Amino acid sequence: MFQVVSGRSVQASRLLGARGAVLVETVRGRKSRTDKVAKSKAGRIKLPPPVDPVEMVVLKERYSEYQLIMRALRAEFKREMLRKKYEKETGSLAEERQRQEVAEHRELMAWNEQENHRLLQLRVLRIQKEKEAAEHQILKAALKREQEEQELIEEKEKEILQLQEDVKTFITLDNLDQRIEEALDNPKNYNFAVDKEGRVVKQTVLQ
Predict the structure, then answer these.
(1) Which residues is 3 bridged to in the sheet?
(2) What residues pair up with 4 in beta bridges, in sequence order?
């Protein structure tokens, strides 16, 4: 009833000629599970393809970003859909609520401007006070430094005056003989011992 032909061995004249029977072309299909393994693949061990660790990390990161973006898009679409549904159901109530929100936003913005202006004034006063305090500290430091310099000058002047007084008692060539005679006339003995309070407890006798 059916005539089986192979795809390449049949002649064109037979295909184009009068058909006396139905021609069925054989087609090679997938092997069934019960078929044996081919001899060329009998000893082959099928290994999974190698996976690049760096590529796997990149793919995981991109997949996580993809999931995050898709969740955000789905949430946004759902929110938009619910908003449209709510506006469609409520009608004028939604418009009134929107007007109230706009009015409340304007009031909050005005309050924000007032608060910023108040804080600006407080900041200006604080900066001015800090500036005045800094100038006062600088002036105070300058006066203290000037006072210390004046005290140092006075101390040096006292030292100079004391040195001028001490110069009168110095031994010079002019009063050398006189000072020698005074030392001989008034001998002093510095060979003595003192106790813990500084009192002389023992002294040798000059000869």
Answers:
(1) 23
(2) 24
